[in-house]
Amino acid sequence: MTEIHAVTEIYSDEYWMRRAMDLAIQAQERGEIPVGAVLVADNKVIAEGFNHPITEHDPTAHAEIIALRRGGIQLQNYRLLNTTLYVTLEPCVMCAGAMVHSRIQRLVYGASDMKTGAAGSLVDILRHPGMNHKIQITGGVLAEECSAMLSTFFKQRREQHKALKKLKNQQQELS
User: Fold this and answer.
1) Which of 52, 48, 59 is nearest to 33 (CA)?
2) pTM above threshold 0.85
3) Is 62 annotated as contributing to ligand binding?
4) 146 labelled ligand-binding
5) For the domain 13-174, what is the CATH code?
């Protein structure tokens, strides 16, 4: 008689970050800043999201906020205990605050954000001594790939703006 053992694969931080990067691509395809987020518990996806503040006209529609909102609905609880949030870009202050309130256990992010990062690059909301909940942080997972995606997006955006400005100037000269 042979025994059957259930094989449960434990996925790595890199695995989940690649899933977040796939979501970031979806944001980019919609003209949004390419940021994706995946909320995981017990090695399973609870919720995911990607940036869409531009298309939704909603300044709070960041990938992290979308994933946290959907996670709360999925778990039927605003406290997302024992979860890990994977996000391609270090969270801003708004998203970091939402993470503290949601009580996630851990944050894993890809690219650091020196201008608005609230997980240690600019400020550290997640481990601030005044906060009533501390979050474990792992930064720099697939950082080069996440950074490259963002750099490419902003380079293309700058080129588009230049081309539009040039076209506008040419039209003005013709008038």
Assistant:
1) 52
2) yes
3) yes
4) no
5) 3.40.140.10
